[in-house]
Known about the structure:
Chain A is mostly beta strands.
Amino acid sequence: QQPVQSPQAVILREGEDAVINCSSSKALYSVHWYRQKHGEAPVFLMILLKGGEQKGHDKISASFNEKKQQSSLYLTASQLSYSGTYFCGSSNDYKLSFGAGTTVTVRA
Amino acid sequence: DTAVSQTPKYLVTQMGNDKSIKCEQNLGHDTMYWYKQDSKKFLKIMFSYNNKELIINETVPNRFSPKSPDKAHLNLHINSLELGDSAVYFCASSQVAGTGELFFGEGSRLTVL
Lengths: 108, 113
């Protein structure tokens, strides 16, 4: 069963912050985050393996609350290059299932 | 040197035809996947192979038949194409099944007319 992401879309001005949420009705053993730019393949951002874990990639960071079966991706001081669709993925039974994606548009 | 490569990038074909997409990875990974991305960008897993053995088949119609001649290659053959098969098909690989980073190919855009 795929995780649920919110919001579906967000529009930002350069320098603004945003949060993308990912939740699952099933136990989350790990959470993966990917970004896909228009016309390109999804690209790996980070994996969170343990509850309470936080990671960062440039000014993009994420947290994982295992008990609440949730993860959040934080876009800080957004740049034009952050535009794209962000997918969270949950790993279960040897497969990675993705949420429906959150489209982020960063405007100058 | 492309890590995961797919061919062709674009396919345009008529309903009822058969088509194949090929995928190769040079990362030495044990696991390969096919994902389908529809027009709403939803990425859905179709199949997964681990060391040439099918480990995941996500209720995909029998018209879709994957084949893995060796662990570096995973091909997808589609029979009797339907309009609803139009999508972008991504091949991916990872070192361990279902965990770790997935490396995606560039995608193959299939359009069924």
